[in-house]
Amino acid sequence: MVCTVCGWRISVWDAGGLRYKAASRGKRGLGRCKQCGRWRWFRVERMTEE
User: What are 21-45's pLDDT values in tens digits?
Assistant: First the structure.
């Protein structure tokens, strides 16, 4: 998940969410950004394996 304002990233799993076999793009979720400290919309995107 990526904050749409500051760009802070967190894993969906670490945020307490489930995303199993999701194929759609452009999904958004509402949550509190730990960097901004405000409620923001998060863009949900697939993380590359590094």
Answer: 655 566 677 888 889 888 888 887 7
Kindly state the DSSP code that residue 5 receives in the 8-state scheme: T
Q: Which residues contact 2 (CB under 8 A, 6 or more apart)?
A: 8, 9, 42, 43, 44, 45
Alpha helices, DSSP H, located in 1-50 = none
pLDDT confidence of 5, banded at 50, 70, 90?
confident
Length of the chain in terms of residues written: 50
Kindly report the CA angle at 5 between 37 and 2, in degrees rounded to 5?
85
Angle at the Cα of 3 from the Cα atoms of 30 and 25, rounded to 5 degrees? 75
